[in-house]
Amino acid sequence: AAAASATMPRMDARLVFCTCPDAATAQALARLLVERRLAACVNLLPQIQSVYRWQERIEQAEEVQLLIKTTADRLKALTAALLQHHPYELPEILAVSPSAGLPAYLDWIRAQTREDT
Fold it and tell me: For the chain (length 117 residues), average pLDDT per consecutive 10?
């Protein structure tokens, strides 16, 4: 088992969920994150319906869901960029750690999110 685990790729990838109020905001944030190498890739899922409680009221909104692929070591900077540029007072920033992934794809995420030197 030890030999097998030694060959397993490091699972330092993160998938970050972030909702946006509209397509223009989502596109701008996605481009910013990729340009700054904070994300390798951002998928935009349009026209999702969100139902949530905000300031003691039940709200419903049409939003765009961002699925952001990054690494653990870029998560803090990615979060800071989202907080700085996102129009929501309290943006969704929810990072999950995948339990598995294609090793070559994980390597690609790492390569695309390396800080410029």
Answer: 48 95 98 98 97 96 98 97 97 95 94 83
Q: What is the pLDDT of residue 9?
A: 55
Q: What tokens appear for 43 in the block?
A: 């998928």
In which order are the strands placed within the sheet that holds 41-54? Answer: 41-54, 57-71, 13-20, 94-96
CA 39-100-113 angle, to 5 degrees, is 20
Determine the distance from the C-alpha atom of residue 71 to the mean position of all C-alpha atoms in its chain, rounded to a whole number: 9
Q: How far apart are CA 113 and CA 35, in angstroms?
A: 10
Residues contacting residue 58 through CB under 8 Å, at least 6 positions apart: 51, 52
CB-count exposure of residue 21 (10 Å: 0-12, 13-18, 19+): middle
d(CA 42, CA 68): 4
